[in-house]
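Could you help me review a protein record that somebody else here produced? This is what I was given.
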Amino acid sequence: MTTPDNGSGQGSAAAAAPGETHSPRFASIGSQYYAILVSLLTAFYLISNIAATKQMSFNLCFTDWVVDGGVFLFPLTYLLGGIITEIYGFRAAFRAVLIGFAAMVVGAVVFGLVTASPPVGDAHNQEAFEVLFGWDGVYVRILIASLMAFVAGQLMNAYIISWIKTRFGESNLWARLMSSTVFGQIVDTFIFGLIAFTTFPLFLNVLPGVDLFPLMGWGEFWNYFIFGVIYKCLIEWVLLPITYAVVGMLKRREPSYRRAA
């Protein structure tokens, strides 16, 4: 039996007996808080994908680590995804992922239309724009990789949080957030890096008008994958006190969450 929680996910709760599950509390999505969280998730996702067109290298502990421009904001999408799942449940998180997915598709269509439109004056800027945002350019490749990775990683993240909460109740929020982040980021970083940067998708060059090229060697890819997972998980850990505060505030302020107690 689950004891009432203190509003921050840290209330005492007994683990379910073998085969037993708790009835987890979730709020309804018809509130301004859900809309704000989804808006932030979508905005961070869009910005990160545009920034990811640039690869960077940092020297840390006498080793050069390869990252992309999404390294600054993208980890926060998992923090937001975790908060959404914890408060509103798996279905609400799935809806948020679909909204982010749709926003990226709309962005790709707009960039494609802008690229195809005739430029004014010098064609030099047009050529540079086509390299980044053309249908066979870097952005579209990153878009496809990101859509696949984002959906797979975020759904993994949401499923683990929802499953652990159903199994163990309101207690141990930190365990839900950290375990879901580790598995979600492994899936996300691997799929994204494999498709966006390596030779893996070059078989598509047989299609007319497609001219893909590798952006990383395999050594750089594994460097990117290992550092990316560790870095993103560390960000989640460092921001855990903020996550606890936000979750606690939402559990206190969401009337439908309190009524579910």
